[in-house]
Amino acid sequence: MKFQTISMSYKMKALIIPFAVFFLSVQLTAQKNSALPGSIPESEGVSSEGITNFLNATGKSKTEFHSFMMLRHGKVVAEGWWNPYARGLKHTLYSCSKSFTATAIGFAVSEKRLSVDDKVISLFPDELPDTVSNFLSLLTVKDVLSMSDGQDPDPTGSVVSRDSNWVRSFLALPILYKPGTKFLYNSLGTYMLSAIVQKVTGQKVIDYLKPRLFDPLGITGMDWEVDPKGINTGGWGLRLKTEDMAKFGQLFLQKGKWKGKAILPEAWVEEASTLKIVQHPEYSQARRDSSDWEQGYCYQMWRCRHNAYRGDGAFGQFIIVMPDQDAVVAITAETPNMQEEINLVWEYLLPAMHDGKLPRNDIAAAKLRQKIASLALQLPVKNNRLTASRITNKTFLLEQNDQHLKGYSFNIKDNICELTVHTDTATYKLNFGASKWQMGQTTKKGPSLVSAAKASYVGLPALKIAGSYRWIDEHTIELLLRYIESPHTEKITCHFDGNQFSADIENSFEYGRRKINLKGRSSQ
Question: Which pTM was predicted?
């Protein structure tokens, strides 16, 4: 429905005003139940129409949005989740975890447990290589915080998938450049910050942060992956709710204060959020001006255009802090183009913010509320003409493969497809709804950039999932499995030809580039 003018008929007013009241009541309910109060966008100088335009643009982008929350003047002016993602779900933050690890360092510094000028080798005397190079001896906590360890290339992938002592492996790596002089994104370096916190406090980062950060901000239910020695991974692996991300951003916007109390020293917030090193000083100014990855790096945060800064995680997990606008935007997503995703914030949300209050706009508020209520990811389209009898209660044994998969069993009843996955060591039951999401949980690992890391998923609870299926044709069924506490989805396309069986497995961040092909036959 399009509204061409401000004038409305009596019937139209009767429709719109209850929507506005409902929108307000939702915000007031949020205010009662959350540390973050709610407000109408226009009351905080934000255009509801601008937010709606942002949401409309997300549907046309390459980014699959899972959630967003926008704060202005400390109040939630808009929030939404794309079904089956939901308010109460955590989401894998990937490298947004780094900002929390750096904050743990900040607390440790404020408690005089260490200094950013401390030499890293002084903290791990028992893990040093036989020969300590000059550059290794110079490496400080500050160098690690600012991604200027001096290593090249990034050693993370090879170390975490191969070694059990990541601290010793990091210290044994060659340092090619004087620490503090050259930027290299290095997640293993962030892991070292986590190890440092545990070394000087005797606690894992997640436990150390609980009374200092999580409890004061009302953050609960968080979890964090660990390495083989029980140290939080630091550079990735933290899972939080969208609101928790927004709270963290708001804490930094408020210079470390929460409800009037200093939680984190203001001096640390300033130090951690200001430029420490330029990624590519050789780039032209024009090239740097066009990228949010060329504005400089802080302490495990990135500077942005428009004088903003952010926590930043792979596939589009963002905590964007905008001091000039007194605003925070938190987003979870999966995207092949993170710059495109953040561009939508600058193109639509940034100009939607104004100084002072805006006139009340019930029409725009109602349209925004309707848009938020409609947010959902596309479901596979059900084909009612096809029968499931050919595969129900059948098991298909797989030929030897490097996925350690032994077979698939199917049972379709009442529009629910139950897939049993047999592996070398376990059996997993996964349910898929026809044209709907069937919610569940599983201990089966989902797709992840760091799934090959030793101890991956150790200590985490069962993973929440949503499954849906469709028949593509009479011989082919497509199973879509969303790991709804992560950015990722797995698609299993199964082909049946008499007793012959084949399956193609894809994960969402490699669609069109890589398939795992399996072959087998019916066991009956």
Answer: 0.92
